[in-house]
Amino acid sequence: MERTTLDMWVGIFVVAGIAALVMLAMKVGNLGTYNMSDTYEVYANFTNIGGLKPKASIRSAGVLVGRVKEISLNTETYEAKVVMSIDKRYQFPKDTFASILTSGLLGEQYIGLMPGGDSEMLKSGEQIKKTQSAMVLEDLIGKFLYSKAAEPAPNK
Amino acid sequence: MSVASAIRGIGHRVVNAVWRIGVAARFFFLTLVYSGPSFRRFHLTIKELFFTGVMSLIIIVVAGLFVGMVLGLQGYETLKRYGSESALGVMVALGLVRELGPVMAALLFASRAGSAMTAEIGLMKATEQISAMEMMAVNPIARIIAPRFWAGVISMPLLAALFSAVGVFGGYFVGVVQIGVDEGSFWSQMQAAVDFREDILNGVIKSLVFGTVVTVISLFEGFDAPPTAEGVSGATTRTVVTSSLAILMLDFVLTAIMFRGS
Description:
The complex is a heterodimer of chains A (156) and B (262). Chain A is of the alpha/beta class and 156 residues long. Chain A is 24% helix and 32% strand. Chain A contains 2 helices and 8 strands; from the N terminus they run αββββββββα. Chain A has an 8-stranded mixed sheet with strand order 7-1-4-3-2-6-5-8, with no helix packed on it. Chain B is mainly α. Chain B has helices at residues 2-33, 36-40, 42-52, 57-81, 88-126, 129-135, 140-179, 183-193, 196-224, 229-258. At the A-B interface, α1 of A face α3, α7, α8 and α9 of B.
């Protein structure tokens, strides 16, 4: 089969298009940044998750260690059950403290993990018992007003 | 009298439009049925890929670069008000990958390659090349239409990906190199926000749909054009108008399906 310059141009075109797709996947998308194929799952119950969403990041000391996999409501305790998948490279002690934090003033919410001092590590499927719920602005304002009202009036 | 004829005119137009949609659907089906030869004799498709894909490269790359640059500039001006210039990368990348890449590439493709296809096939019909083929027992749909159809479907996602990639670099050039947004946060926030399956693959699916629709419209308008100079010119105009509207409407539908609730 004879080769023509036309074939070469079409080849260049296809290669450029595929290169653009790969570049989008690697440099723009999240395919090249971290490979979290090896993960283990733990869960935690929160009384209020605020605006936490699936795929929100899980950070420890600011380092991304995992993602929120699934959020559901436990109808027995009416608490939110958050399933987290965490990178296998990072092991956490059993008494790790999980709290829902906000990045920046109005930023996205994420779960912060604060490791405790236990010598045993969390295994797949286990529960993080110590949790702190998200701060809800309305609750905060309510508490503030309540404490203000409880204060004795300044003497005149 | 004139009222009656006006109503009759409207009815005639509606019936005609529905009729044409039916014929176009049959035409699309026939194209799929007779697309065997365009893969067995792949050089036919290669030739069309050259005309639809390679020849559109320059307009796609230049347009992508400038759209990315405008996004970078406008995005910076808006985000600066909220003190979140570091999210510029997210804005540019998501805007391009989800919407502007597939849509703008498809619009450019419709006016660059689609109109050329319509004019070419319309002229083939006007100069009776298509009836000559039928006379020689060559199926014109298998020989002329199907290779062009597959070339359009193959080249559209590649062009859209190129558009997005070049656009991201345009945004990078304006945002980071010219204005001085932090390079690290530009890329890292972008990578944290853009999901491969959710954003990039959905963009590719969009461009595949647009490629199919635009190519079918262009080929059908050409094949259905009245074999006169006037007919061909009218068909070319209709190609650009119909495919642009189809792209924008389908984009809304696809966006509603793909990106809701995420």
